Amino acid sequence: MTIPLVVGVDGSDASLQAVDWAAMEAVRHGVPLHLLHAAGGKHEPSRVMSTATARARKGSPAVRLSTEVSHEDAATALVGIGRNAFALVLGSRGLGDLAGLLLGSVSLAVAARADCPVVVVRGAAEHREARFGSIVVGVKEEKSSGTAMQFAFREAQARRCRLVAVHAWSAPSGACTTAQAPSWPLEAHQRPPAQVVDDALRASTEQYGDVQVSRQVIEGPARQALLEAASGADLLIVGARRRLGHPGLQLGLINHAVLHHAPCPVAVVPQM
After folding, report:
1. Tens of pLDDT along 67-96?
2. What is the distance between the alpha carbons of residues 166 and 243, in angstroms, rounded to a whole number?
3. What is the C-alpha separation between 120 and 88, in angstroms, rounded?
């Protein structure tokens, strides 16, 4: 049986936007969509589910739907079901979050603990509805880019869109450099920034030869580079390493920044 794409619903506008996005994504990949609601909120579970189901079918009539009401807290329920899910999809804020929050507490908790990719649906309609025809993936020096890269290529192929691989780097103060040939002495374990991108892309470009890929190697902060690239994207994808000796993921400052500020949906992909 095909594992489902799971979307968390709580009756909020943000969760219904997540349902819209998830229903299109499920049809795009040919997987079932599973709606999960953690009971205990302000709304009657049956009403939450009926509204979410109608919303999914209206936007994507071909989607295969199933529903579930859990009596665990939302983050625990979502992380649990995410152990056997294609991905988890969440709204950027839920009913219980304060108006000033940029990202809901449940979304952040799930993004930091899930075993599968987590997509936080955010941004204006033009970004949520895939009008740009472009996906951005962040490329890191660490091996945590590998699984994120596979996810990004699979998304680009399913959407028939362009993939932009972004790698940000910083030179020592005062050094005269280029991305291809830094002039300062590299440590033995380091590679030129352009080679970091080429190495990260190599395996996936061989597997997904029909995906159009462009590279952006930028000297400067990664946070700024990713957010600027995401301004013209339908989806921003970042990888996350597992924390040694602890459950969950090491999201880091960059991942926190894009989850809170990206102008488009953000996918956090755990390193496998």
Report:
1. 999 989 889 999 999 999 999 999 987 555
2. 24
3. 9
- One DSSP character per residue, 214-226 reads EEEEEES-HHHHH
> Within 13 A of 257's CA, how many CA atoms are on the CB side?
13
Strand runs (DSSP E) across 220-257, as ranges?
235-242, 249-250
**Rounded distance, CA 41 to CA 10, Å?**
7
At 164-214, the pLDDT tens digits run 999 999 876 555 556 555 554 554 447 789 999 999 999 899 999 999 999
CA 99 to chain centre: 23
Strand partners, 218: 168
CA distances from 116 to 11, 88, 89, 156, 187 (A): 24, 7, 10, 18, 34
Nearest to 170 by CA among 141, 137, 213, 199: 141
Separation of alpha carbons 231 and 99, rounded Å: 24
Q: What distance, in Å, lies between the first and last C-alpha atoms of the chain?
A: 22
From residue 91, alpha-carbon distances to 10, 23, 97 in Å are 9, 13, 11
Q: What is the pLDDT of residues 91-122, one digit of tens each?
A: 987 555 444 445 678 888 899 899 999 999 99
For the chain, helix, strand, coil in percent to 5 are: 40, 20, 40
Nearest C-alpha neighbor of 198 from the set 167, 163, 230? 167
Q: The pTM is what? A: 0.89
